[in-house]
Request: fold
Amino acid sequence: MIVNNPQFRPPAEARSLILRVDRGCPHNRCTFCAMYRDARYERLSLDEVRELVEQEARLATGPRRIFLADGDVMRRPFEQLMCILEMLNAAFLRLARVSTYANGRSIVTKSETELEALRALKLHTLYMGMESGDESLLQRCRKGDTAEQMVRAVTSAQAAGLRMSVMVLLGLGGTEGSEAHAACTAEGLNRMQPRLLSALRVITVPGTELHADVEAGVFQPLTEWQVVWELRELIARLQLRSTVFRANHSSNIVPIEARFPHDKPRVLAELDALLASGSLDKASPGRMPMSL
Reply:
């Protein structure tokens, strides 16, 4: 029996069947992330994936949505991804869509023809952590992707009919890098034009290099007021033609759901009112959740 015990998935995949076909993250070096620090990266063989699929097919009652875990299943070679999707389509007759995490480098290694072939087998949404569009900040965070790679990844995936859900991290540049982080991230997003966009506030998790930098005084986190200001600056610079935007994770100071460009004036007005209200902490990050 193959153990299927995924720990992480996007909030939007709460009702999906989660299949842990990989273990851990192939990159696993980002200074802010602790998700897979204790998991050695390994891929199930195709025979093991088949066993897992058959095992879950006996338990599941015709799922329509499946999420492939762990981090960056798109790193697998195209032929393996095709084989896995063919297994899923054969085993789950009501299947409508398959989604997974994906890094920019993993997407750009696939041609548009290959991406279209994966889409034809019901691959639907790729969740990509952009984090920032500031190249120097991405290097400091050891992201592993460049901003240019991620722009190419989103544009090529969406041209092939896939839906991209892109995440950015507010506060990742600290107090010194906040303005550049907002400006460069907006520039990258404007080039990408992602269908889905979410903004989370960076949380310093014990055991990560970013947390150690905060403890050592090397990294100065944004105050509660500064985080909202950074979000306001990011949104003001966005020129998105058709994007669903969310900033409603527990890490966010104010929950936001909007469609751009239609709701951009409303969101900016709400953030301006909040910044002027005097209710935000200007001395500290304020109350923080335990983790992302």
Notes: The radius of gyration is 19 Å. The chain has a mean pLDDT of 94.
